[in-house]
Design brief:
Shape: globular
Structural class: alpha/beta
Low-confidence stretches: none
Radius of gyration: 20 Å
CATH architecture of the largest domain: Alpha-Beta Barrel
Number of strands: 17
Bound molecules: S-adenosylmethionine, iron/sulfur cluster
Strand order of the largest sheet: 9-10-8-7-6-5-4-1-11
CATH topology of the largest domain: TIM Barrel
Largest sheet: 9 strands, mixed
Distance between the termini: 29 Å
Length: 360
């Protein structure tokens, strides 16, 4: 049986960051207990459809799920544990904002069952944090990180780089500092200016493409020299520290999404379904499923296993990609296409989107 995960989305934040287009909003007096009651009902609904599955990961994402009380986190984990079998090494992650750590939060979350923390540090430079509209400064981020490291074996941090006008030197300072903490996992994102965000409305422009590409290559090089495997476009892990839950998405495994911004993917008797938080199952055609598997799978440095691709959509990968485009990318050294596997090479990484677009 493949890995199977539960994603819990918490859509509330203390403040809205000007670059963020995730479904998240600021709201006072959130009726947490009532919302969690409804999440537990949704858990029961999905459990009835997938009760033969074994849960290998639970992921609390956001928004800011570290605003949930540890008691409510425990209620959700207990509901999952009561309704499915859990694998003995189940990964239970939470995205946490440094501004929610209050001295006891992380140890209470650990007691509630969380065993992996992904800390939204974003930068360790106060001016950059201000520019990003974060409500924490660098020393608060470090304090949260040091606290998390004392409690959790499995810690990750998110950082954003390639900010407008950011120099390689400034970015390297943040990178070296974070590396000195020997985390098992890092998610390093280049700033994107998303439509309808405050940054887009203000006309903020991204760093120029050439400088951003140089930063990406140098970042990947530095991470590899520090023992990290570059396993997904923006994700780097020490051995056995890949994010098991996110791998579900990239490898096309099943998962259930609970909460307003959540969606899921389920295979039931060889039919493939997208699920929404309205508890609707919408059947996907084999081609729709194949296209999303291609889009997600080529983000992984290990690429797409063709046999697994067939099992996950019922179509042969070689039959659905543009073979002429694939041949051209292979002869340009951007793609590797074997009978077992399709993957983008290191030289192809910078043009991943173009490769995917032309293959579909
Ligand atoms: C779901 S978000 C939020 C997690 C958490 N609420 C926080 O802000 O720390 C996950 C990550 O996406 C990244 N991210 C969000 N918007 C981005 C953007 N426009 N460009 C680059 N990275 C972004 C941030 O690193 C963020 O930590
Ligand atoms: S980046 Fe995180 S904290 Fe900021 S608005 Fe988005 S989800 Fe909320």
């Amino acid at each position: 049986m493949s890995d199977f995960g539960i994603y819990i989305h918490w859509p509330f934040c203390k403040s809205k960051c000007p670059y963020c287009d995730f479904l998240s909003r600021v709201k006072k007096n959130v009726a947490q207990d009532t919302i969690i009651d409804s999440y537990i009902k949704d858990i029961l609904f999905y459990a009835q459809k997938t009760n033969s599955h074994k849960v290998t990961s639970i992921f609390f994402g956001g928004g800011t799920p570290s605003l949930l009380s540890p008691h409510n986190v425990e209620r959700v984990i207990d509901a999952v544990a009561k309704n499915w079998r859990l694998s003995t090494d189940v990964e239970i992650s939470m995205e946490a904002n440094p501004n929610t750590e209050n001295g006891t939060l992380f140890s209470d979350l650990h007691l509630a069952g969380i065993n992996r923390i992904s800390l939204g540090i974003q930068s360790l430079n106060d001016d950059e944090l201000k520019f990003l509209g974060r409500t924490h400064n660098a020393s608060q981020a470090i304090h949260a990180l040091e606290t998390a490291l004392k409690i959790f074996d499995n810690c990750s941090a998110d950082l954003i780089y390639a900010l407008p006008q950011q120099s390689m030197k400034e970015w390297n300072k943040t990178l070296q500092k974070i590396l000195s903490y020997h985390l098992g996992h890092l998610s390093l994102y280049q700033l994107t200016i998303e439509e309808n965000t405050v940054f887009a409305k203000k006309g903020i422009l991204p760093l120029n493409e050439e400088a951003a590409a140089d930063m990406y290559l140098s970042t990947t090089n530095t991470l590899q020299q520090n023992g990290f495997e570059h396993y997904e476009i923006s994700n780097y892990a020490q051995p056995n520290r890949q994010c098991r839950h996110n791998l579900l998405y990239w490898q096309g495994d099943d998962y259930v999404g609970i909460g307003e911004g959540a969606h899921g993917r389920l295979r039931i008797e060889n039919h493939f379904y997208a699920t929404t938080h309205h508890l609707q199952l919408e059947e996907l055609t084999a081609t729709e499923r194949a296209e999303e598997l291609l889009l997600m799978g080529l983000r992984l440095r290990s690429g797409i296993n063709k046999q697994k691709f067939y099992q996950n959509c019922g179509l042969n990968l070689d039959d659905i990609i543009d073979t002429k485009a694939a041949k051209d990318f292979v002869s340009d050294g951007l793609l590797i296409n074997t009978p077992q596997n399709l993957k983008i090479t290191s030289s192809g990484l910078l043009v991943t989107n173009k490769i995917i677009e032309e293959l579909i």
